[in-house]
Specification:
The chain is of the alpha+beta class. It has 2 domains: about 1-85, Sandwich (Hypothetical Protein Tm1070, Chain: A); about 110-325, Peptidoglycan recognition protein-like (Lysozyme-like). Helices cover about 15% and strands about 25% of the residues. It has 4 helices and 19 strands. The strands form 5 sheets. It has a 6-stranded mixed β-sheet. A hairpin with a 6-residue loop joins strand 17 and strand 18 (about 280-285). Helix 3 packs across helix 4.
């Protein structure tokens, strides 16, 4: 087992990005309270369609850490990037457009933060020559996939927006996806964050035009390697190996899944024969799946969305169906 000990970070830390190729790894942090317990790193193995599988990469909240230690089970090395997502420069976008969520209208609306509101540095999406690192492509929606970020097992994130920025930087730059890999993210308080850039129009997730059947087309992202096109990814911030998401996060997840199902004319409790329109990779999956379910048709293995939460997905589909029945008319696009 290899160990990396750093006793003097180069910058005041808010987060660490830890990448490793071993079967498992762990980190512990030292703060004014002393050393923390070891935190097992349990990253999703996500990535873009058609790209080589990325090494496992975890974003860890590290506010106030004055030292950290990483160990990898098989003795291989870990690559650690020190991040400060609060004090560092952040591009400001004047008069940001407030996008509309693709969710049913009615009931208690969750707080929604488009990219400009959570501080996305849009310059990261562009190479030095001005080209997009991850050009947008749009496809009909076939499935919805639930993830967890694996950032923390306990409710200890003081700044979820900073964590979203850290995930964005990790996936866009360090993992070279070219953008954040998820379409939407949800924090413990139930706030919803716009993820993958789609277009400057009125809705996240979707592009400027509809398919031949009138349904809006979703932007391709990078949350289930090899199985992204036609697959919308929603990520809960946290790690649910031994606990459930908060009640607020759960409500927002049901709300978002119902809106996406309505917009895409999807049956929450059904199965579908997914076919990747880019590669032709296919298999039968639930319309609403957890990330780990994709391993049954060829995606890489993962714990995501957590050993505690994954068994609840059957009940979640039922909750989504009930909410969907209360809002039978798909939301109108706002342009």
């Amino acid at each position: 087992m290899s160990r990396t000990v750093v006793t003097s970070p180069a910058i005041p830390l808010t987060h660490l990005s830890i990448k490793h190729g071993g079967p498992s790894a762990a980190v512990r942090l030292r703060t004014g309270k002393g050393w923390s317990d070891w935190l097992e790193l349990n990253a999703c193995q996500n990535g873009r369609d058609g790209a080589l599988a990325a090494a496992r990469s975890n974003v860890v909240v590290a506010n106030g850490a004055t030292a950290y230690e990483v160990q990898v089970a098989d003795g291989s090395d870990a690559t650690v990037s020190e991040l400060n997502m609060v004090d560092g420069p952040r591009r400001r976008i004047p008069n940001p457009q407030t996008n509309s969520l693709p969710v049913p209208r009615g009931g208690r609306q969750p707080t929604y933060l488009p990219r400009a509101r959570w501080g996305a540095d849009e310059s990261l999406r562009f190479a030095d020559d001005g080209s997009e690192r991850f050009p947008t492509e749009f496809f009909p929606v076939q499935t919805l996939t639930v993830h967890h970020s694996g950032v923390y097992e306990h409710n200890e994130d003081p700044d979820p927006a900073a964590t979203v920025r850290a995930i964005y930087y990790d996936q866009c730059i360090l993992q070279e996806f070219g953008d954040i890999g998820y379409h939407l993210l949800i924090d413990e308080a139930g706030r919803i964050y716009e993820g993958r850039y789609s277009d400057p129009g009125g809705l996240p997730v979707y592009g400027p035009s509809a398919g031949t059947d009138g349904r809006p087309l979703m932007v391709n992202a990078a949350h289930v390697g090899g199985y992204n096109a036609g697959n919308i990814g929603i990520c809960l911030l946290g790690r649910f190996t031994s606990r459930q998401p908060s009640a607020a996060a759960h409500r927002s997840l049901v709300f978002v899944l119902a809106g996406l199902a309505a917009t895409g004319r999807l049956a929450p409790g059904a199965k579908t024969n997914y076919v990747n329109p880019i590669s032709g990779a296919s298999g039968t999956v639930n319309v609403i799946s957890g990330h780990r379910d994709w391993a049954t048709i060829g995606a890489g293995p993962t714990e995501c969305p957590g050993d505690a939460f994954h068994p609840y997905l059957g009940a979640l589909r039922q909750e989504v169906a009930v909410m969907l029945s209360q809002f039978p008319t798909p939301p109108r696009r706002s342009r």
